[in-house]
Design goal:
With 223 residues, the protein is mostly beta strands. It has two domains: 17-114, PH-domain like, CATH 2.30.29.30; 125-218, Roll (PH-domain like), CATH 2.30.29.30. It has two helices and 15 strands. It has helices spanning 97-104, 205-218, and strands at residues 20-28, 33-41, 44-48, 54-58, 62-68, 71-79, 86-92, 112-114, 125-132, 137-143, 147-152, 159-162, 166-173, 176-181, 193-199. 24% of the residues are buried.
Length: 223
């Protein structure tokens, strides 16, 4: 769980990691917020704010960690204010998101949510697509040896899904694709989240089979 401490009495046992990133951020409150410093390291996440406003989480104490260019969100295992919800801590500002993802992608499991797309150039193939969601966006789906990327200029819509982040893929036809991930779905307990795409070009049977095999093999479900 999150641990709050007076500024002068932050836990001394927190060992500085060999690799860490620190940056100024705003912790958002129900009304307003407070400025402080967020540190993301091999050990976990730590926030130091004014008047003893401070928390720290080890990586295994985080139910979900969302990384985006303009915010970091820590979803803890603590109960939220409403029944059936978790407590969320949102920190906004200019986030070095690529650096944080590089730091954590091999240290965190499916509890890491990367709201970014990796640099272009490594795609085995790509398809223009529309994400059919509450906001909706136009972008490109890319299959790489390590992940599936959705690249778009729309705010909060880009994603990088490592294969371990994907529960499965499905399609109802050549112009439709659904990627089911382990990202928390607020309306469903322990729920998986579906990302539905309308494809602007048809996905061939060979490409769909390649995508399905990549997901299943990388997750060890088939040899």
């Amino acid at each position: 769980m999150a641990i709050g401490k007076k500024t002068g009495g932050l836990i001394l046992a927190w060992a500085m990691a060999a690799t860490a990133a620190q940056f100024p951020t705003l912790h958002r409150h129900v009304r307003g917020g407070c400025e402080g410093t967020l540190e993301v390291s091999e050990n976990g996440v730590r926030f130091a704010g004014p008047k003893g406003h401070a928390w720290q989480w080890k990586l295994d104490q985080i139910r979900q960690l969302e990384l985006a260019p303009d915010r970091v969100v820590v979803v803890s295992y603590e109960n939220g204010r409403l029944p059936g919800t978790e407590r969320r801590y949102e920190f906004s500002g200019a986030v070095p998101v690529d650096e944080l993802y590089s730091l954590l992608k091999n240290r965190m499991d499916q509890r890491l949510v990367a709201e970014l797309a990796q640099p272009a150039g490594a795609a085995m193939w790509s398809l223009p697509a529309k994400h059919v969601g509450r906001a909706g966006s136009l972008g490109t789906l890319e299959l790489t040896p390590e992940a599936i990327d959705y690249r778009t200029g729309a705010k909060d819509e880009s994603r990088t899904w490592r294969y371990a982040d994907i529960a499965g893929v499905s399609s109802s036809g050549p112009f439709q694709l659904t990627i089911t991930t382990f990202e928390l779905a607020p309306a469903q307990y322990g729920g998986r989240k579906d990302f539905n795409f309308e494809l602007q070009q048809p996905i061939t049977e060979a490409r769909y089979d390649e995508l399905w095999l990549q997901v299943e093999r990388k997750n060890g479900r088939i040899p």
